[in-house]
């Protein structure tokens, strides 16, 4: 199996300069000053080089795009970090303060909801405006040339505009925030699962994502804006809830209580939901999405906050879009429904046809994923330097534009201008007519989906549809995974709506006078659902999203069934596309269930051993040695007392902060303790050991770790089975688990990767 | 605070004959034969007296209806019971067998879905037929009497029919399955939370629930059939998945693998979802309901099965109901939509009106809950013997009927017969007219809700509505908690639709010519949602249920917001009605979050101590002593080795089975082990210690517990904080947690009730 994964969407290459610290011959001699590598990353460590200033525009090297290994991903700490300081703070807290924190949680969700809706409005309107502008320029050029046989001119103009726009997206993505590539859904999924994907919730990623998706959609790539909107919502949530931006080095004295992985995760969940709500106008779908796809930590209070967040996001989107559409305040205006309002219903005997379409959707979805898989592997092998990545994007853009242009002239279908089409897409058609194919290419992709759904039976001839869908399928396969922000929902829906409409036309041909076969919209919808379900393999949230986005509930039963069938058929061949990309990038994501038939694997086989431990009261020299040991770069260490008994667990980050603030017993009074605020302050970017300077004298001092360690971490017996360990990890979002023997002595430590390795073995 | 709770819906009184075993002076002398009390129940124990044959028709005593104490509830074991036998079985399992078990899981869900739909069809049709029959008899009598001034005759006939029907329901409930009283939702909630409510998923409960709800709805009580349908679905799920019925003493050699609490819970989840899907025609709502209200153990694979189950339930309901309505096969026939199809939309400026209605809903919901609370406390104090319970039901029935009859004649509103009303409800009206009030009382309650939603503006005069809603509100308050199966959704919707329609009429009066004020249906719908939200305090699942039950998506935003507002306003005053009843019954249910400000409570304060332990290899006499100790009736015991080191955990039920099968070291070969099948076979009704006969000789034998104990149960340090313990319990569905000290010695044991006690202290 190829060891290179699909990194583009999941990796930020500028963080890849992992330089292992030089080997230290004699560990007991190692002192902190020996370590001067600026961007050291640990195998399960804590560092990001966000502070190192090498974020942008470093030269292209093979090194910079080297694929990530599983070991490069860090885990997040979804377990509460308890210690004496925390107990003291919580005990001091009055009921009023506690209420205040609750209210802040709601307030943050309100902010996330409203801003996410606003961002979606900005993206929407920008795309509409840019697309209209582009169309105006190109159609004018065509009009001028259609009689004077200079058709290469409009083609060139079109290609130039598209390539220009797409290049902006590519440059931003490649050089500012590579993690902004792709839809963002796999990244958010990883984040919520407990894996830290570097930079995934940073402001520069947000900026890249928003500008990039506007550029790439307007630039005519076969991408949608929905996935990136979800990612944007998640970043906003993380940013707002933390009250700080690392990119701008700004920290507000707000929401400090929430500066830990656990709280951040909850808000990111809400942000993702708000993103879905804004992208599809589907607030319930948003809540479900964030539960189905992302969260394994269900909690009713949290769900209500997510729900509020989704609702507000919908309201804010609908309100501003209704203003834009000159229906100010009419929040139920049907023009706000993403895929147009569906009327009509279906007959019971059409169900088998729908089910058959589900099978087709599953097959085509699996084919899409398989082709994309091959392309991704090829891309990871050969398109490795940054310049090439940008070039690839431009090539795809040029090819897309050329194909589209050729299709417009190949497909000679002209329809009379109706009231729906008031724009000038005449091309080679007679006066008073428009080119059908052009209506698919010169409008924002949502409008194309709407056309395929709702335009009357004769609007698209079968040949037009076939000419459209075949190349589009392959271009879309090629496009997903490029170094630009790119959503997958709209391409899948377009493909599905196209072949769905084809089937609808067939049905009408079979029974031209039947009432039920007059309505092609339902076939287009079912096709779109089947294709989407076969590609991404979600069910419940997709059902609700489609119901909300079409404003029609009566198709819920067939939609559900079709999505389920498409998933089953697709799963027979390969994974869903998001899972595939996560898998290719070797992210140590934990599945929902323990690996099957793993009951005979026990803790002692799973754990990393021997575990490096530290003493409750410890020589500074020893701590430095442990922290600098290149072979044991865990993110935390079990703490033992003099007799070697297990006393608790301390995080690497905590030790670093203790060292930096020189909390040495010899230098301070017995009651001198660091405040919890100091620890919160350095979250989430902990400094490397190298910036800690400890003198020779200080090396002989002692640190009393007791106030800072977690006195009662979760432990497991060495006899425990893997499923038992798995359940503990999964249910509580743990990062590490101490394995103890019958004498309560530490015998090893299990990390997320240890578990992942075993689950992973079973798979190809 | 009153110590008697609302037991009616949550308790099965025939299980209350808890006779504590006679005090045994010298514990070391105690032998198994000393214990002959047949229905002994442990404080956290395992026994039900289902086998004792005293289920029905025992004489009324105060004892039999004595309220349950928290100590009487047992916990369920949602943690996998691991031991050497289990490891051996799982290790032997081939990938093919594993697949086979997966397929069985799906198959069971298919069966659950289809049968739940069928049961819903039976309930629906029975209610429709009985109601029609009743109406025919009564209207004929009225017709005869209206001119000859013998109106007392039809009233008497009506009262007799109603009281007769309701008495059937009451007798069944009181004497066969008291747990079938009420809606069943609180009971299912408790079950899924991990508390064993006796008899809640038994066949006799199912039978009582189905017959009882048909009788009580047709008998004209202010109840709905939706809650009981959900309960029925859950019982079906438990029955099918276990392949056995205890009531009929039938065991099929099917699905044996699933005979444990963990698997049963998953299927009950699916059954509840199928119930919602069938009750409201809301499959997505069903999935959400079972997640929001019930399950804290989210798992994607499980969710898909629940989803399938819901879909099939909907299909089977729609299919058979479409046949019944002579629209065979037309699954999209709008007559299948529970509350009728909603057309129309709303204007942005109506939102504040809706929000205001949300506030009213919250207030009225809180009032409803408060009154019901008082009535319940009164009822628990004074209506304690069985005979009285039946009498109360009959009184309520007579009062309901009398009030309804009076209202029909008081409200003189007559409407001309339209195409909707083709039945004869003339009463005192002119020929060709019908009595509006009668149309609310002589139709199944769903149809009354539909009338209030959809009948044109003038159908109900404001006075008619006021005369209807005021008494109905109080009768509904009185009715919920009676000893009959009774759903709460329909009464709440009826009340809400009534006052919602009133507001709609007001709006129309304010602006008679406005387009937006012509549609009273939307106000009735929002009112219904607000009232329901204010009473039961669910949000997400209710939103989706209402959307699916009205077939209209465009109200989703206002519905959501109104439900949220109603919940907030209601929560300001008291708990939701289900939570209230759970709370009153002192069920040790665990909330979603640890109790606030509990960080300074530690394991050593929470745990029960000293923990009774048993040895790995143990004298039979000692085991008997431990099992019969009345002061330490836990459901499991930590196991220690010779040196007192903690070695694992063994369940009380396992020890009992070992005793019963006389697995004594002296009597059997070294490899003689009980099969796992033996343990599964006795699930879930373990026998009491009294039926185990151990001779004096055998008392001196040894039992080797090692193959049967769980070698690696979850443990926690005595220093752990309550939130930390809570999270472990909640996330993993634990029943007991061993507390160890730094030497890994057992110092105590934490059970669900220990945790519940602390959370409970904070509340009134």
TrEMBL record, chains A, B:
Residues 607-667, 709-764 form the CBS domain. It comes from the Eukaryota. InterPro entries: CBS_dom, CBS_dom_sf, Cl-channel/antiporter, Cl-channel_core, ClC. Signal peptide: none annotated. Keywords: CBS domain, Chloride, Ion transport, Membrane, Repeat, Transmembrane, Transmembrane helix, Transport. The keyword Ion transport applies. The chain crosses the membrane at residues 106-128, 156-185, 206-224, 267-290, 302-321, 351-371, 391-410, 460-482, 488-511, 523-547, 553-570. Belongs to the chloride channel (TC 2.A.49) family. This is Chloride channel protein. The lineage of its organism: Eukaryota, Metazoa, Chordata, Tunicata, Ascidiacea.
């Amino acid at each position: 199996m190829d060891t290179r994964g699909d990194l583009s969407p999941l990796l930020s290459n500028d963080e890849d300069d992992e330089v292992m610290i030089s080997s230290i011959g004699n560990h007991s001699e190692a002192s902190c000053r020996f370590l001067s590598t600026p961007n050291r990353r640990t195998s399960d460590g804590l560092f990001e080089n966000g502070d190192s200033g090498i974020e942008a525009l470093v030269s292209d090297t093979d090194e910079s795009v080297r694929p990530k290994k599983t070991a490069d991903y860090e885990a997040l700490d979804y377990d509460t970090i308890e210690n004496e300081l925390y107990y003291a703070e919580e005990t001091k807290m009055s009921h009023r303060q506690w209420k205040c924190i609750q209210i802040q949680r709601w307030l943050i969700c309100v902010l996330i909801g409203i801003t996410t809706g606003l961002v979606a409005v900005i993206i929407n309107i920008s795309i509409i405006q840019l697309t209209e502008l582009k169309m105006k320029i190109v159609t004018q050029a065509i009009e001028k040339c259609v009689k004077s046989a200079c058709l290469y001119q409009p083609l060139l103009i079109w290609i130039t505009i598209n390539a220009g726009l797409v290049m902006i997206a590519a440059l931003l993505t490649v050089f500012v925030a590579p993690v902004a590539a792709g839809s963002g859904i796999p990244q958010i999924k990883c984040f919520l699962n407990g894996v830290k994907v570097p930079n995934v919730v940073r402001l520069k990623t947000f900026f890249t994502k928003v500008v990039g998706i506007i550029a790439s959609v307007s630039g005519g790539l076969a991408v949608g804006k929905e996935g990136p909107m979800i990612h944007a919502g998640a970043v906003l949530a993380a940013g707002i809830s933390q009250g700080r931006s690392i990119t701008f080095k700004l920290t507000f004295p707000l929401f400090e209580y929430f500066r830990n992985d656990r709280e951040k995760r909850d808000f990111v969940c809400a942000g993702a939901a708000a993103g879905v709500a804004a992208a599809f106008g589907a607030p319930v779908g948003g809540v479900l999405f964030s539960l189905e796809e992302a969260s394994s930590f269900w909690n009713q209070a949290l769900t209500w906050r997510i729900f509020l967040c989704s609702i507000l996001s919908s309201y804010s989107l609908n309100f501003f879009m209704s203003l834009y559409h000159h229906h100010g305040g009419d929040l139920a205006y049907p023009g706000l429904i993403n895929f147009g309002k569906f009327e009509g219903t279906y007959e019971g005997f059409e169900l088998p046809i729908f089910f058959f379409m589900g099978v087709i959707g599953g097959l085509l979805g699996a084919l899409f994923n398989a082709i994309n898989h091959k392309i991704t592997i090829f891309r990871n092998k050969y398109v490795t330097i940054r310049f090439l990545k940008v070039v690839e994007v431009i090539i795809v853009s040029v090819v897309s534009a050329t194909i589209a242009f050729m299709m417009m002239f190949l497909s000679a279908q002209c329809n009379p201008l109706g009231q729906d089409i008031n724009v000038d897409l005449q091309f080679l058609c007679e006066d008073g007519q428009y080119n059908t194919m052009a209506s698919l290419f010169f409008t924002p992709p949502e409008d194309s989906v709407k056309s395929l759904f709702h335009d009357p039976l004769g609007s698209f001839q079968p040949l037009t549809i076939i000419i459209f869908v075949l190349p589009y399928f392959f271009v879309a396969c090629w496009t997903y995974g490029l170094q630009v922000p790119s959503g997958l929902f709209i391409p899948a829906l377009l493909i599905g709506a196209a072949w769905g409409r084809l089937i609808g036309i067939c049905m009408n041909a079979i029974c031209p006078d039947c009432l039920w076969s007059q309505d092609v919209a339902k076939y287009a919808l079912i096709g779109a659902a089947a294709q989407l379900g076969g590609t991404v393999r979600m069910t419940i949230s997709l059902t609700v999203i489609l119901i909300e986005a079409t404003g029609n509930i009566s198709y819920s039963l067939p939609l559900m069934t079709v999505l389920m069938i498409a998933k089953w058929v697709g799963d027979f061949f390969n994974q869903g596309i998001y899972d595939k990309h996560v898998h290719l990038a070797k992210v140590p994501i934990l599945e929902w269930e323990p690996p099957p038939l793993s009951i005979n694997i026990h803790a002692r086989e799973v754990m990393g051993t021997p575990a490096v431990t530290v003493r409750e009261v410890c020589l500074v020299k020893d701590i430095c040695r442990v922290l600098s040991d290149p072979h044991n770069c865990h993110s935390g260490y079990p703490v033992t007392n003099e007799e070697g008994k297990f006393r608790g667990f301390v995080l690497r980050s905590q030790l670093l902060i203790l060292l930096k603030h020189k909390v040495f017993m010899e230098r301070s009074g017995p009651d001198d303790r660091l405040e919890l605020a100091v620890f919160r302050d350095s979250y989430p970017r902990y400094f490397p050991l190298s910036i800690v300077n400890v003198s020779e004298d200080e090396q002989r001092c002692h640190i009393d770790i007791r106030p800072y360690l977690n006195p009662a971490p979760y432990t497991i017996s060495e006899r425990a089975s893997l499923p038992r360990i798995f359940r503990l990890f999964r249910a509580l979002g743990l990062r590490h688990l101490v394995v103890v023997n019958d004498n309560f002595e530490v015998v090893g430590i299990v990390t997320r990767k240890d578990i992942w390795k075993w689950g992973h073995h079973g798979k190809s």
